Amino acid sequence: MIKSNQRFFNFILVLFDMCVVTASLLFAWYIRFVSPFFDDGVRTMNLRAYIDLLAIIIPLYLILFVFFGLYQPYRKQRFFKECREIVFANIIGITILMSALFTMKSIHFSRYMLGIFFITSTMMMILERGSIRKILRMARERGFNIKYIIIVGAGSIGQTFAAKVAGDRQLGYKVTGYVDDYYHKSDKDGIPILGKTREMNEILEEYQVDEVIIALPNTSYKRIDEVIDICEYQGIKTQIIPDYFHLIQGTTAYFDELDGIPLINTRYIPLDQPLNKWIKRFIDIILSILIMILVSPIMLVTAILVKMTSPGPIIYKQIRVGMGRKEFWIYKFRSMRCDAAIPGEIGWTTENDPRKTKFGAFIRKTSIDELPQFFNVLKGDMSIVGPRPERPHYVTQFQHEIPKYMIKHHVRPGITGWAQVQGWRGDTSIHKRIECDIEYIEKWTLWFDVKVFFMTFKAVFESGY
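Below the sequence we write its predicted structure tokens.
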């Protein structure tokens, strides 16, 4: 019954989404070619051509919405997350659409109109989903669309789950009571104890519930099996809260599978997801090519001046540790004298380091010396945004001194990073840097990358980043 209701609800959502996409396109066409907002004399674009375009747009967008999880149950998905996925899906959708039109040389379609369509469809989709959530919340507050649950286990795990449910009414859950072998029939924080696990069959027959949440310790596997058997006999869905859930790090539990064997990742890393990894890599490549084209005159002048002001190679190479603890050569414009490094000496570069040339001090202060690292990005050694890579010597040292230091090697290192734009760069607190790196790794989103990218410019101009 629950699955049937969910399928019907998703069917209604699909119809709404199709209407939103269609209305957005028609609205964009009206604004571009009929309204007085664009007084450029263009009034000959055929509406039929844009209506025919819906045969491509609607299936494309629906596939993207499914891919981004926009048809998952609302009870377990926050609205902010849904808005973020709507924006991402629309960005990818309009990008694919414009790329397809460009490839097919369909140049008669208005770019202004497609831009208006993107903005309108994104805003209307968010408004649509927000309105649906508001309606569902109002219904649940009035006792409609509520799922009644029994929690097996009144210990700390069960109490934590019950508190979550009670604290967020929009989830639409109501706890009927606990089932526990170690408490007498009474109340536990206002929730009744219905009986013991051996009475489970009678309890389920007495109380009409939709789901049973099992919150027992792993050592009670025999009782867990019995409860599941009884619930399945009664046709009631069961879900298990692992008693080691507190060990799962990050913002979201991440479950995997190996040939039918479930695996729980103890730390959720968004960039472990293939789609996220592909999107970030794609943007890195495109953005690196564009930046290198734009700054090629600066790089050429810098290369000439490095050669003129100090004898030696233009590019300085150094071994760093990257993703998966693999070593790679990082590229920079040389900013120090070739005879500056003393064999065996390892140390941080300070602001007034005597090893730097005068021109080297300038390119380090303005971060121009970092520009060759875009070649590292194209090679796949680095990303534009990510934790800064360290030399093997420091990695070995910090691995023993700082807990969780090696987590930074789960993702590609970056030219710039969250720690660096926060001011933790060079000879500063390594502990603070790692805190920022782990925060970035666990909370990564495209918006986070965009934020760090633009904060980098601010840091460069304000503090000589």
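Residues 274-463 form one domain.
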